[in-house]
Design brief:
This protein has 263 residues and is of the alpha+beta class. The protein has nine helices and six strands; from the N terminus they run H-E-E-H-H-E-E-E-E-H-H-H-H-H-H.
């Protein structure tokens, strides 16, 4: 089943529920990065009341049913939003199955549903959803990038220290675990050059040049202090490019001082 058909079926169901103001796509399906393995990320915006949110979320099994029978289901709940992730098998969605993530939230909290994502409206009952999404302007995106970078700045020295100790002990398992955390910080810093937020390694390579990709790939294959040092230097070079734009110069200076004692 084509992803367009999945979205169309869910939208038809949503149109029949008055508490739902609109539906929008997020993630790779609204960019040029999608492929046959892409997940479907759907935001479902409700009227601004807890009752409206509850009524819309109660339709989650109905939305799932028009797609198929999921193999596995995961649900999460936050103060102002809800999420359900559905995993469908490869017999219905070849070649590798499909993950459908549906995020539910009131219009007034729509910014919390998919932070950092690109959006594409597919249903807007009264034009209110489009208006709310337009408020998510560059200023807000820059704040998301700044916050993400700041969080990584705090944890990076601990990861470096753990990587150094794991390598000295000959503990390859723990070494690769913390090296992946370091790489996640690097991907975040690389994406910040384009004003984007990326968490983890998914599609992170699109924000790297070819030489940068080669450096990252080497770090997966080497078990050495040199590999750690190369990631540290790469991360610092990326932060040098972004620190002024995101107001993080002081934090970066502190990071450099800490790393000079750790590597």
């Amino acid at each position: 089943m084509d992803w367009h058909l999945v979205v169309d079926r869910i939208v038809r169901e949503a149109e029949a529920e008055p508490s739902i103001e609109g539906v929008f796509l997020g993630g790779s399906l609204v960019t040029d990065a999608w492929d046959e393995f892409s997940d479907i990320d759907l935001g479902i915006a409700t009227a601004n009341s807890n009752d409206a949110l509850a009524r819309a979320y109660a339709m989650r099994t109905q939305f799932a049913a028009v797609v198929g029978r999921p193999l596995h289901v995961l649900e999460k709940e936050w103060d102002h939003s809800r999420m359900i992730s559905l995993l469908f098998g490869k017999s219905q969605f070849p070649p590798a199955g499909l993950e459908l993530d549906m995020f539910f939230g009131q219009l007034q909290y729509i910014a919390e549903l998919m932070p950092g994502a690109s959006f594409g409206v597919v249903f807007d009952r009264r034009g209110l959803l489009g208006a709310e999404l337009e408020k998510l302007d560059r200023t807000r995106r820059e704040e998301e990038v700044r916050r993400d970078l700041a969080e990584q700045l705090v944890t990076f020295p601990f990861d470096v220290n753990h990587a150094v100790k794991a390598q000295a002990r000959g503990d390859l398992f723990n070494y690769q675990f913390v090296m992946e955390r370091m790489r996640a910080a690097i991907f975040s810093a690389a994406a910040s050059r384009q004003g984007a937020v990326v968490r983890g390694s998914k599609r992170a390579s699109r924000y790297l040049s070819e030489p940068e990709r080669e450096l990252i790939l080497r770090s997966y294959c080497e078990f050495s202090r040199q590999a750690i040092d190369e990631l540290v230097e790469f991360y610092l070079s990326l932060l040098t490019q972004s620190q002024e734009q995101y107001g993080l110069a002081g934090q970066v200076r502190h990071l450099r001082a800490a790393l000079s004692e750790l590597t």
